[in-house]
Structure formats: C-alpha cells, structure tokens
Specification:
The chain has 245 residues and is α+β, with helices and mostly antiparallel strands. 15% of the residues lie in helices and 46% in strands. It has helices at 2-15, 24-31, 133-136, 208-218, and strands at 33-39, 46-53, 58-66, 72-81, 86-90, 95-100, 106-111, 121-125, 140-146, 149-150, 162-166, 171-175, 180-188, 191-199, 221-225, 228-233, 236-243.
Length: 245
C-alpha cells in the first residue's frame, strides 16, 4: 500500500502542468510604440513629454519645458520589461520606471527629475486617443500678461484686450483694448496660425496696444491649461489669457 501511494504521488508530480511564463520578447513587442503626456511644471507652463520605445530595447525621450526658450531635449537611452510588466530605463533624463497597463497606456511611477506630479502620470499611446486642443480654444479669453509681464487695469483706458475663437468657423474676433479685431485662424496640433487679422483704426493712448498686436503677430503655437490660454512664439510665452466667466 505504501509503495502504491508513493507511485501515485510521483505520477501526479510528473503529470502536473508546468507554469507558463510570459514571453518577454512578445510583451516588449506589444509595448513598443510612441507615448505622450503633458506633465505639471513648477517653473514653466507644462512639461510636454513624448517617449518612443523601439523593439531593439532603445528609446528616445522628447522633452519640452513649455514657456522656456531653448528648453527642448532629445535623450537616447535603453529599456527592458520584466514579468510584472514594469519597464526600467537607463541613460534617460526623466523616466526611470513605468508600468505597462492592459489598457495600452503606461503609468510613469518613478521619475529621475522631480516634478510636482500629485499622482502617477499616465502616458497615452499616440493614435489611440483624441486630444484636440483646438476644441478648447472655443471660448472668450481675457488678457492677463504680455511677455510674462502682468497687465493691470491702469494699462487700459477702456477695457482689457480679449480674444474669442470660434472653432466651428475658424474665425477670431476681439479687441486690442481699444480697437476691434476680426480675422481667421488655423491649427495643426498645438501650432496656431493667425490671420489675416483686421483692426479698426481708432487712435489709442499709450503703447500697450502696439505691444499686444506685435505679440499676436509673433504667435506660432498655443496651449490651453487650467482655464488659461498661452500664446507662444516657438516655446516662449508671448501672451497669456484667462477664460472669461
């Protein structure tokens, strides 16, 4: 009887299914791609982050500190993924560890640089989501600052400059604080092309109107964040507005 029991145990051990391990090469293949996120920044408008993961274990970080001139970085590093779907990076500037999620996103769990991120940032795969900033333009915006210099009520004899973007028509209306503005605009991603813009010709005291219109002419891009509209020349802030109540 004892021999029979031992034989049965050995038979069960031999026939027990072996644990199937995750194929890391296949997992890396499915994870590879391009991801992006807009992260908080303590001394700039936002940190625009794009991460390219290649199947040969190399990666490229594209980092832009929006609002800072000459603050663009392209960093080349390497990555690998483990059985827990955790990505570990070397020779990178921002990413240290990320978690690959079943939804196709990446969660940035550990950063090399410290940023005021209140919760783990989620990177979305490019092409799988809609992030049309142009739709956020569709509002009335009241001027707050020119070239990062705050505007006060005393800078305008009548009213603060303001702009209204009508996205369904691609039209722009508003005021310089003295003269009316009318024109058109087009967007491509975060790129913004204004014009032609027409203004009325009323004489206006002071130089604020001229500074404002000059900044408008320099605008090449925009960012909408926390009910603020930033008009940019490259990555440099030239005008800042708050959303009208």
């Amino acid at each position: 009887m004892r021999v029979a029991r031992i034989s049965l145990i050995l038979l069960m051990a031999c026939t027990a299914p072996t644990e199937k391990k995750t194929d890391l090469l296949l997992l890396a293949h499915y994870t590879a791609g391009t991801y992006e996120a807009s992260l908080p920044c303590s001394d700039c408008i936002s940190l625009e982050y794009q991460l390219e993961l290649d199947t040969d274990s190399t990666c490229i970080e594209h980092i832009t500190y929006l609002g800072k001139p000459n603050a663009n970085f392209e960093v080349h590093g390497t990555w690998f993924i483990d059985y827990d779907s955790v990505l570990t990076f070397t020779n990178t500037r921002l990413a240290a560890k990320l978690k690959a999620n079943s939804s196709g996103t990446l969660t940035l769990t550990e950063m090399i640089e410290v940023h005021p991120q209140k919760k783990p940032a989620v990177l979305l795969r490019i092409g799988t989501h809609s992030n049309n900033q142009a739709d956020l333009l569709n509002s009335v915006w009241v001027l707050e600052a020119i070239n990062t210099n705050e505007i006060s009520e005393s800078d305008y004899a009548r009213e603060r400059a303001q702009l209204e973007f009508i996205t369904t028509e691609g039209k722009l209306t508003g005021t310089t604080g003295c003269n009316r503005i009318n024109g058109t605009y087009t967007t491509s991603g975060n790129n913004l092309a204004l014009g032609p813009l027409l203004t009325t010709k009323m004489a206006c005291p002071g130089s604020t109107e001229a500074t404002f219109t000059q900044a408008l002419q320099q605008t090449t891009a925009f960012k909408v964040l926390d009910l603020k509209l930033y008009l940019l020349s490259g990555n440099t802030e030239v005008l800042r507005f708050k959303k009208a109540p």
